[in-house]
Amino acid sequence: MEDSGAIHYQPGDLTMGYRLVFAILSLVAASAAWAGPLHDAARRGDIADVERLLLLGHEINAKDENDATPLHWAANSGHSAVTKLLIDRGADVYANENPACATPPPGAIIAGPPALTELLASQQVDLNATRTNGVTPLHWAAAGGHAVTVRLLIAEGANVNTRTIEGVTPLATAVAMGYDDIAIILRQHGARK
User: Fold this and answer.
1) What fold, for 114-193?
2) What confidence score (pLDDT) does residue 188 get?
3) pLDDT at position 103, please?
């Protein structure tokens, strides 16, 4: 039989079992260390760990290799309590300098509960912030079918007629995605295709 190079594990082969477990744990540890412990704790929503790491002096606005901060990780993961803690402790909501990424990231607006959108709006975060392609949080909320978030964004001053660089509006996005309820909300607030 020719050896294909594949790993063959036989039940009861503890040496191979330990090697596989060690390899998996090494990969997990490497991916967690990729962004730093504060980034990881924020991504997991572990408020106690975030507080502990801040007390130990971890930089609140530290950036990973994608220019994302712990605040971006917490907000994108929908962790309102950690997001609020980081903002209360002085995290800069505009710390991301990567032009391909909006600040705040649209995921912070649409992935989290409506309370997260309210929290970011209360911090005078620009809810019309765009990515380099002109996509705003309202586009993302419309594309995702998040009617409550669409209403919140509009109430907080999001521009219902903003256009991407291709000329696409949030209304056109909602219609294209088949979200008639969101299209109605947008039209009620003056949106045009």
Assistant:
1) 1.25.40
2) 97
3) 52
User: Measured between alpha carbons, how far is residue 12 from residues 3, 4, 19, 21, 171 in Å?
Assistant: 21, 22, 13, 14, 60
Q: What are the b/e assignments for 86-124, b being 16+ CB within 10 Å?
A: bbeeebebebbeeeebbbbbbbbbbbbeeebbebbbeee
Percent of the chain whose predicted confidence (pLDDT) is above 90: 31
Higher model confidence: residue 147 or residue 107? 147
Residue 50 tokens, joined: 């975030």
Q: What superfamily in CATH does domain 22-98 come from?
A: Ankyrin repeat-containing domain (1.25.40.20)
Q: What is the pTM of this model?
A: 0.59
Kindly state the tokens that stand for 89. 């402790």
Token pair for residue 143?
A: 């594309």
Residue 181, token pair as written in the block: 């309820």
**Angle ∠(109,151,190) on CA atoms, nearest 5:** 120
